[in-house]
Design brief:
Elements: H1 14-17, H2 51-54, H3 56-79, E1 81-87, E2 90-96, H4 101-107, E3 117-119, E4 131-135, E5 138-144, E6 147-153, H5 158-164, E7 172-174, E8 187-193, E9 195-201, E10 204-210, H6 215-221, E11 231-233, E12 245-249, E13 251-262, E14 266-275, E15 279-283, E16 288-299, E17 302-314, E18 319-326, H7 345-353, E19 360-361, E20 366-367, H8 374-379, H9 391-404
Parallel strand pairs: 1-4, 5-8, 9-12, 14-18
Antiparallel strand pairs: 1-2, 3-4, 5-6, 7-8, 9-10, 11-12, 13-16, 15-18, 16-17, 19-20
Amino acid sequence: MLPPAGTRPRRPSPAKESQHIVSTPPEPFPAPEGPPQGPRRGARTPSRIPALLRSRGFLIGAAVLVVLLLAGGGTAFAMDKRITLTVDGKDRTVHTFGSSVADVLESAEVELGEHDKVVPAAGTQVSRGQDVEVRTGRKFTLELDGKAKSHWVTAFTVDEALKEIGKHKEPMSLSVKRTAAVPKSGLEVTARSARDLVIQQDTKKKKVSSTEPTVGEVLKENGIDLGKYDKVKPKAATEPTDGMVIKVMQVIGKPKTKEVPIEAGVQTRENDDLPKGEKKVVRKPKDGKKKVTVATVMKGGKKTEHVLKEKVLKKPVKGITEVGTKEEAPEVDSDVGGPADSLNWAGLAQCESGGNPKAVNSAGGYYGLYQFSEQTWASTGGSGLPSDASPSEQTMRAKKLYNMVDGNWQSQWPECGKHL
């Protein structure tokens, strides 16, 4: 007999439970008719739980499944690691089940190049919340004092790159700022190392070390501003070199300009055709002219006038004087004996050559005082040219020739022989 609606059946007492166990199948839910209606107030909704859910075995199995699922999820949660990965300064979060830095990079799909760097190292074990940094390698070329050398660095700036290659503390001037970025494509930097120099102002000397590219900038670096008329040697645009002495001359007042002559002078040269000691003016000297700028400067602690610059207005022309080096033929006794010695040989010479022992008649090949031919001269015992012999030798051989032709002067001097 079913209990009245709304009442719960009583559970049999333990002593009688085994005797009243009845297997009663559950009643099916009636098919709904018309629109659904809620239960009446005060009435209980009939149970709709299927019989399967009421079975004890199902409930135990479900409980076991839930426990297993919860256990598996906890294990997975425990194995997952949240890592902060920084690549070239940019952060990202990476989740990995791996145990090493290499696993983190693999999870993030980051491949290391030959010159890249990772911190900590790829084989290092990682833990949850750890930081991993990757820096890409980049080519850094430093040309120091004309010598270039390339390095692979992971630095982001020139200053960091210099630290990596051990040049950070060396004094040098750079073609770019130290804060300049080193891109992944690489960077070439030109640098100058410091030069040891001496700055001299009159008698004062100062040793300095500078990386400046010009003498002028070295002076500015040391508080020396060149005035309009000041002079510096070497010039301000000159590139400094080790050991260079920079001389500064500071001008007092305004310079003055004036024109002054340039003395030409005389050049002396030898002439072996002139008798020894004889001089011959080939060209007279002509003085030139120049414009000079002078100023008062301090020199040796005293004020003195100094030429700042000069400009040649007219070049000088040197004179030329030749000095003879030719040794004169020795004088000989012109007497040969006989009637020839008493003749007027000076009169003959005057008629033939004008009395010039050097006379040369190039048209006829006749030489000297008495216009000997070379053949006739040789026949009297002479050597060389008659014009090179001394006057006394020429007269002596003319007398010999006279005797050789037995006084027949007409055969030798047909025009002038009458003066003998």
